[in-house]
Every structure is written in structure tokens, then in C-alpha cells.
Design a protein that fits this description.
Elements: H1 3-7, H2 10-25, H3 44-55, H4 57-72, H5 93-112, H6 119-146, H7 150-157, H8 161-181, H9 187-199
Helix pairs in contact: 2-3, 2-4, 3-4, 3-5, 3-6, 3-8, 4-5, 5-6, 6-7, 6-8
Length: 200
């Protein structure tokens, strides 16, 4: 079997495509700008958290990369129908870029939780990766592009926290329910089955 087939199984590529599409679909309700903040509130970070919690590290990151590449070539897949290279020059660019490591860290933490990750571990993973890591990228870029201090950018981003915590809870509940119904949705279980199939 060719090396590329072992590294990128068809099933994994399909899952990556599904979650890239899910993140795009979560942008359909649109975006909300509050208190004059140049960075909009969207549901798409919920999709980033779900990708990490269900796909694991590299597949989640790849799903986000696929979405961002499609956005870069002009497809209007971001909330509010935004797309094109210009979106990566806006104050929200750092948050978009942060989706990639955010999804990866969420997935990595879920993988560390073993074969039966509990709701608490899933919630922690979504908060650290889907909120903390994304903010870590987003706030400095927003400050640099908008010409404001880090403190001001952090204060502007504080308005997102209640909604992001709610999205982390929703993602955790959905991921846990999915994993109970479909054990292969647990990243560790999926990896073990994939390895067993290769060895077999």
C-alpha cells in the first residue's frame, strides 16, 4: 500500500472535509459586532472546538486549514459571507489564524484524556484550545492591526468570553454524546483502530 494511503486514509479525509463544511455552515447565521468591536461574534468557533474534540490533533487542524485555504481563494465561507485574502488583513485575522492551533490543542488535550474522556476533560480541552489558544493569537494581532494596546484589545475581547464559555460547554456535551453513540469519534479509539487495521 502506498505511504500516502497509510498516512491519509479516505475515511479521515472525509471527516476532515465534513468538519471544514460544518465550520463553514456555522457561519450562515452571520456575525454580530458589539460595542464597536472590529472582531465579530460568530458560531464558527463552536465548529473549531467540535473538530478538536472529535477529530483529534492533526485532523482537526487540517479541517481548519482546508476552510481557511478556501476562504483565502475567495469563497465566502466566514460569517457574514466574508472571504478572500483581505480578511487576513482585518483585526480579526489573528483569531482566524488561531483556529488552527486552537483546534489542534483541543484535539491534543482530548487525546490525553484516553478512551472515555469525561465531560469535564472535554470542557477543559475546549476552553484551553478553543478559547485560550485562539485568544493568544487573536488579541496581539488585533492590537497590532487596530493600533491599540494589548490591554485595550484584551478588554475588547472580554465581551466574547461568556459566549465562548457557552460554546465550549455545548461542544463538550455534543462531543460526549457523539462519542458515546459512536466510539470511533473518540480520537484515541480511532487511532487505535487505524493502527490495528494497518498492522492487520
Amino acid at each position: 500500500m502506498p505511504q500516502s494511503s497509510r498516512r491519509f486514509p479516505t475515511g479521515d479525509l472525509a471527516r476532515v472535509a465534513v468538519f471544514a463544511a460544518l465550520i463553514a455552515v456555522l457561519g450562515l447565521p452571520g456575525a454580530l459586532n458589539v460595542f464597536g468591536n472590529a472582531v465579530p461574534i460568530t458560531l464558527q468557533t463552536l465548529g473549531v472546538m467540535l473538530a478538536g474534540a472529535i477529530l483529534g490533533t492533526w485532523r482537526a487542524a487540517l479541517a481548519v486549514v482546508v476552510l481557511l485555504v478556501l476562504v483565502a481563494v475567495g469563497l465566502p465561507l466566514l460569517a457574514g459571507g466574508r472571504g478572500g485574502l483581505a480578511v487576513f488583513a482585518l483585526p480579526s485575522a489573528g483569531f482566524l489564524i488561531g483556529w488552527v492551533p486552537g483546534a489542534a490543542v483541543t484535539g491534543w488535550l482530548v487525546e490525553r484524556a484516553g478512551r472515555t474522556p469525561g465531560l469535564g476533560r472535554l470542557m477543559l480541552a475546549c476552553l484551553v484550545g478553543g478559547v485560550g489558544v485562539i485568544y493568544l493569537f487573536g488579541i496581539p494581532v488585533q492590537a497590532a492591526i487596530a493600533g491599540i494596546s494589548l490591554g485595550q484589545a484584551a478588554l475588547l475581547s472580554a465581551v466574547f468570553l461568556p459566549g465562548d464559555v457557552a460554546k465550549a460547554l455545548i461542544a463538550s456535551v455534543v462531543a460526549r454524546g457523539t462519542q458515546r453513540a459512536y466510539p470511533d469519534a473518540v480520537p484515541v479509539v480511532h487511532r487505535e483502530r487505524l493502527q490495528a487495521g494497518r498492522e492487520g
